[in-house]
Request: fold
Amino acid sequence: MARKQKFQSPQGMHDILPEDQKYFQKLYSITENLAEFYGFEKIDTPIVEFAELYERGTGLTTDIVEKQMFTLKTKGGDALALRPEFTPGIMRAFLQHGMLNLPQPVKLFSVGPAFRYESPQAGRFRQFHQIDFEVFGEKSPAIDAQVIQVFYNLLAELKFKNLVVEVNSIGASCCRPYFKKVLASYLRSRFNSLCLDCKRRARENPLRVLDCKQEKCQPIKAGAPQIIDHLCEECHDHFKEVLEFLDELGLPYRLNPYLVRGIDYYTKTVFEIFAENSPSSSEEASLPIALVGGGRFDNLGRVVGGKDVPACGGAAGVERIVSGMKLNRIKVLGEAKKDVFLAQVGDLAKKKSLKLFEEFRKEKIPLAESLSKDSLKVQLSRADRLNVRYTLILGQKEALEKTVILKDMKKGTQETVKLDKVIHEIKKLLKKGK
Ligand code: AMP
Reply:
């Protein structure tokens, strides 16, 4: 058995190989088209931020911060973290650059890697990529619906079938603290039957128990009070309007009273989007895992920057979407077809070929070659495989005479052309062929 190479990519982190790049590119290009249509502008924030941004924003007792953050100390003593998610960093940038003074709402999108120390399993990586759409400075429920619509369209364009949006409202500071008390008291009465994690959650962050996937906690969840029955009037009306907008848009949704999302900053609307062929997680008894997650976060601005900014957004998981694109047999562009191949034999011809190759580049005519190969037979068979229409052959004799052989691969004919006329000749032929 071959010995395993010493260095492998770190666990849960993957190379994106050339054959996969085209899926990523296609997804990013659809993202950019949607962003343009819906008026989102691109922002890139650093991949590292102060760890405290996530501790305060995402929340100290969330799994993401408590268990999954990659943190590092700089030589200067700063405690930084690789971003486990985008939203706190984008909110920080929004406030830092005074975007509150711009006409509101400000719509931003971003694409890039995120890092979470997950136990490696299907669909969960330690480095993965997200597409983020965020809307700042607008509290209307129409925005919640529009954010959901943008993500829905992204998946629909990629032929994901039977898309379902799961939605819930988790209220806000006006009603959630009271609900938490009601829930905590219910959980206390069932404390002994909770799984180990939920025993801790029941004390620190009882809402998260509703999110638990352990078999043991399911009956307790089923009997638990539901936040939807404890929303204040404002949160209730907001949610009702979001649902009315979703109805109007014809987006298929399902109310999920257990959807709380594992992040502290959410207020009011939370959502996730699943598809028929959403990948399953191996750990959680083959439950489908979401392709997109998001919600409203009206308090995050105050928590990380001292200013209230109503906002709503979400993140799509790129790797999960790409694996779905493959299942959906989405067509992605192959390498651009080249019509001309340049073959060379002998040292002088090789030298001249390099120059000719550059001239083709300047004229923007795609040209295939095998400059590293010396055998004409090998080069011609490569030209055949590439299915080019014309092959240029430069041998010692041609190089000395400043000519080149132009072979029509379809007709099997060939002629000798002056080297300084060959580009003109090829242009003429390609134009005629069109
Ligand atoms: P979240 O905000 O945690 O729900 O993340 C938003 C989306 O990012 C999820 O719906 C997934 O599609 C994706 N995602 C989150 N964590 C991971 C991970 N560890 N590996 C791959 N994709 C992930």
User: Anything to note?
Assistant: The first helix runs from residue 18 to 38. The radius of gyration is 29 Å. Residues 187 and 202 are 6 Å apart (CA to CA).
